[in-house]
Amino acid sequence: MEKLQAVRGMNDVLPADASKWEFFEDTVTRVARQYGYRNMRAPIVEYTPLFVRSIGEVTDIVEKEMYSFEDKLNGEKLTLRPELTAGLVRAAVEANLTYNGPVRIYTMGEVFRHERPQKGRYRQFNQFDVECFGFDGPDVDAEIMVMTARIWRELGINDVRLEINSLGNVDERAAYREKLIAHYEAQLPALDDEAKRRLHTNPMRILDSKVASVIEVNKTAPVLLDSLQDESRAHFAKLQQLLTEANVPFAVNPRIVRGMDYYNRTAFEFVTDRFGSPLTVCGGGRYDGLFEQLGGKPTPAIGFGMGIERVLMMLADSTPVATLDAYIVHAGDAAQKTASSLAETLRDAGLAIAQHANGGSFKSQMKKADASGARYALVIGDNEVAAGTVAVKPLRDAQGAAIQGEQAIITSSAVAAHLRG
Ligand code: ATP
Ligand code: MG
Question: What does each C-alpha distance from 237 to 3, 138, 224 come to in angstroms?
Answer without folding.
Answer: 58, 9, 15
